[in-house]
Every structure is written in structure tokens, then in C-alpha cells.
Amino acid sequence: MDFKGSDTIPGPRAEDQLPHTTQAAAKIVIVGGFGVGKTTMVGSVSEIKPLTTEETMTQAGIGVDDNFGSDSKTATTVAMDFGRISITDQLVLYLFGTPGQQRFWFLWNGLFEGALGAVVLVDTRRLEVSFDVMGRLEERGVPFVVAINSFPDAPRYPIEELRTALDLAPDIPIMECDARRRASSRDVLMTLMRFLHSLAMTGSRT
Amino acid sequence: MTPPQRQRRNPAPEPAPQPSQEGEGKPNPERMYVVAGPDGERAELDLVTLIVARAADPPPSATPEQAALLRLCAAPLSVAELSAYLSLPFSAMGTLLTELLTAELVHARSPIVRQAVPDRSLLEAVMNGLQRL
Ligand SMILES: Nc1nc2c(ncn2[C@@H]2O[C@H](COP(=O)(O)OP(=O)(O)OP(=O)(O)O)[C@@H](O)[C@H]2O)c(=O)[nH]1
Ligand SMILES: [Mg+2]
User: For residue A95, what is the enclosing H or E element?
Assistant: First the structure.
């Protein structure tokens, strides 16, 4: 790899530096199908301009039934946007906007295993694209909440009808949101935290 | 109009079935990035492991790549951010950081990971932090 040289690397702005007291970071994932608003949600709550980490996926990782078509023998670059929220001077929270296809998840070690929980972003125009990811989270025991990103031309269903359609366990929160609005995205994260807190009160769900 | 219908799934028995030919699930062994932790213990490198340089300036012996990383983490910075700023894939960070940890040029602060029963005081701290957003 041709390295650019250290003088050309832009780092975090001075105001974006974490204090030296920062002891540890936790992460949550925002997962959903193509174009559902993952990057928008990360950007609306992040204190830094969202950044992107990339990973290369080689042949072995590419399934046969995907849409890479004739390029399926070559390596594919998978990008993941992320942002950050400082919680205290010792704790920082990272948010990762992760593509819905599970074959991408293993590229980043511990992404789902270590996440405190997940937000599943859903678009009611294409509800079924989030079915698989929700099932995978259930199988892996990753607690999640569902946020319906309200696009203007999307069909609107009563929230209880969506709960039934998504076959959500009764305790799993489901809510509408506008990923472009910080307050709305913050409410979604808050709902996830309250849900995780309720799991802590009742013991883990198994 | 009625929405399409999903069927809930159950937690997979441990260990979860992982068809290796699909490349899913269990990370490929070459993707298990093991680095020396602060007390010489071995830890997996996580996207949100925090890296901090031990000295103010990179030593003259550092490669340009190492020097760039050391300058970036004068203050704590996650592996994800380092990967983004250096335009290096996450997998390349493992090698680079293992060198720097072995040379005792950086500290690594382990991430907080999900526990079977969530840590209530952690969640309360996060809720308070979000409230201030
Ligand atoms: N009306 C409306 N538009 C939104 C909302 N959230 C996102 N959008 C728009 O939807 C488009 C896709 O949003 P992104 O945030 O890029 O979606 P994404 O999930 O990151 O997309 P990929 O990374 O390409 O899968 C953008 O043009 C957004 O401006 C929302 O809550 N309401
Ligand atoms: Mg995106």
C-alpha cells in the first residue's frame, strides 16, 4: 500500500478530541436495508461529522445469491459510517450504521457480539427487507428496538399493525421517527437504552 | 392494504450454526486481531478499543505510517476513527497496532461490551448523556 505520509493526514479537529480521562467506549449499531436512513440517523445525533471505516471482502465472503453479478469473483469494499456521542468525561458511545446483509457483519470483529443493542430502521415501503436482519438479531440474542423512518410517500400503518406484521415480542419497543431530526433520533436511542435497562431489571431474555 | 408478515425467530443454540462456506458468522481466523493488552494480556481488537499514544512525539525510528497513527492518538481515539483518518481497512489496523503495542508506544483501553444482563449504571449514564444532547 502506498502510504500518503504523515503530514497529509487530517485528524480530528481540536474540539473533536476526546479528553484524556476517557476510559472506555461502548457501541450500538443502527441496521437496516439499503437507503433506509442509517447514515442520516448517525449524522443527526453524532457530535463529530460521520466518518467511514472500510473493509475489503474477498471472494470467500461473497454469497452466490447476491447482486454483485459478474463481478462476484473480485473483492468488494464494504463501507460503514459511524459517529460518536460523548457521555461523560470517562465514557463515549459510538454509533455504527451497518448494512443489513449479515454477510457483511463478520468483517468487523465483535461488531454485533459486543454492541449494547441495535436499532432496526424500517421503511414501510419495503418492510420485508428488514425481516432477515431482525431474525438474525433474534438468533444472536442482540436486543433491538424498531424505528419506522417516516418517508413522505410511504404507506402509513397503525403502529400496532406493524408490530403484528413484524411479529415483535410484546416487550420490544417500536416507534416512528424522522432520522433527519436530532431530537427524533435521540428519542430512538433513548428508547433503546430504556429497553436495555428494563432487561437488566428482569434478567436477560432467553 | 396489509403489510407483509414476518415470523419471529428464536435465539440460536450455542454455538450458533455458522455455515463457513458462506463466510458468515464466526470471523475468519485471519480476521481475529489479537493484540497485547496494557498488562501484556491478549485482547481482541475492537472497533471501539481506544488507543492513546504514550509519548508526545513519535520516536525517530517510527515508520511514516506509525508516526501518523501516533500523532492522531495524542488524545484517545477509537480504532474505527484511526481506520477512517488513515484510510486503512480495519484489518490493517490489527498489524499496525500490534507493532505499536509491542513497542510500548501506545496504550489500548478495552471497550465495554454487552453482558448477558445489562449493566444498569452504565445504561443510566448513557441515558443522562443522551438527555443533554
Ligand atoms: N423524508 C425522510 N427522508 C429521509 C429520512 N431519513 C433519511 N432520508 C433520506 O433518505 C435518503 C437515504 O438516507 P441514508 O441515510 O443515506 O440511508 P442509508 O441507510 O445510510 O443508505 P445506504 O447506506 O445507501 O444503505 C437520503 O436522501 C435521506 O435524506 C427521514 O426520516 N425522512
Ligand atoms: Mg449509508
Answer: strand A91-99
Q: Which ligand is nearest to the CA of A34?
A: 1
Q: How far is A53 from chain B (nearest CA, A)?
A: 5
Extents of the domains making up chain A = 21-64+73-201
Domains of chain B, CATH where assigned: 32-113 (1.10.10)
Q: Name which of B78, B106, B128 to mutate to probe chain A: the one with the most chain A Cβ atoms within 10 A of its Cβ.
A: B78
Look up residue A105 and give its DSSP letter. Answer: G
Tens of pLDDT along A33-66? 888 999 999 999 999 999 999 888 775 544 444 4
CATH architecture of A21-64+73-201: 3-Layer(aba) Sandwich (3.40)
* Of A66-70, A145-149, B52-56, B86-90, the least confident: A66-70
Give yes or no for A104 touching B (CB within 8 A).
no
Give A7: exposed, middle or buried? Use CB within 10 Å, 0-12, 13-18, 19+.
exposed
Rounded distance between C-alpha atoms, residue A12 and residue A26, angstroms: 19
Q: What is the pLDDT of residue B30?
A: 43
- pTM here? 0.88
Place of cell 448517525: A42
Is the model more confident about B95 or about B33? B95
Q: Which residues of A, range 1-30, sit inside 8 Å of B by Cβ?
A: 1, 3-6, 9-12, 17-20, 22-27
The nearest CA of chain B is from the CA of A206 a distance in Å of 7
